[in-house]
Amino acid sequence: MKIDKSDMLKIDESDMKTDKETTACAESPGYLQMSLAAAMTLGLRPGIFYRGARLCCINLLLTYEKGCVGNCAYCGLQRQRSGNFNEKSFIRVEWPTFDLDEILDKAESYSHRVDRVCISMVTHPRAVADTLAVAGRLRRLDKSVSVLIAPTVIDRQGMLDLEDAGVEIGSVAIDAATEAIFDRYRGKAVKGPHKWETYWQRLAEAVEIFGDKKAGCHLIVGLGETEKEMAGAIQKVNNIGANSHLFSFYPESGSALAGRPACPAGQFRRMQLTSYLIQNQFTSCDRLSFDGNGRLVDFGVDESELGIVIESGIPFMTSGCPGKDKLTACTRPYGDGPPGDIRSYPFMPNLEDIAKIKMEIGD
To answer: Model-level pTM?
Structure first.
């Protein structure tokens, strides 16, 4: 596969430096890290989910001794965070490492719990080849496969190869709503390799390759953007033909942004509702109204219609890749907030939840 050197990162193993030398560790493609929630779902870790939440997507992460070359300030996997890569937390929880054969065996044993498998790439010189190898092995499960793409190390041909390997959905974690915030926390300001233009280009290519609404875009609410700026990013994602999957910023211990406060609940609720309304053609960014500080004050939707949407609870559930008979297979239970302060509901909100959500929207 040829890499377009004009917008792709040139990486070799000598670039992959950690804060201290590590001993040899289990690496991809033979080994993968797995979210704690997925490990619980497959019986590989003990535990129960608060309020009976369920995860129907097995979230896997490529793993390497020298880790990810990215240095995103809010990420638990950032290059400059101390510790061995496979021991770092990610999205505030442990990601234990398992042999791929064991993962496949367990996924077959617990097939009734699994609708989808998602492979998350990291920025590493072997990531594309290893993702293709893992995707090929996953064919054995006869499950839908998603990939969270690392735009800095993949090109259009690489995504075509993923599609040929059976990948159904390709997503891109742009995360930041504006170029300035992207550069501040992912690019030059933190000595990171990522480029704003490359990420948006890969997202557009993912839509072309995997199909309309078969590509997703991760956006993190609360990195310093205004609500007007986030709404604009959501509209841009929709116009491209992708789905926006929102995350509420919650500080990762040990990351550069560990001391930054979590995203206010009201800000996240308004953006969840905005995303749902835009993606389902209830409104558009040019119909929204904002105050002088860029805070959303009107959704551009009839009040009674808006009330019905809010009462449904659906906009406030986790946004992710779909399941066989579910809105979302990738529910990521409590991934962007603790159980006592749920931001993305991994189940249908009940009446008490809706009452709380309504208060937060108006906060």
So the answer is: 0.92
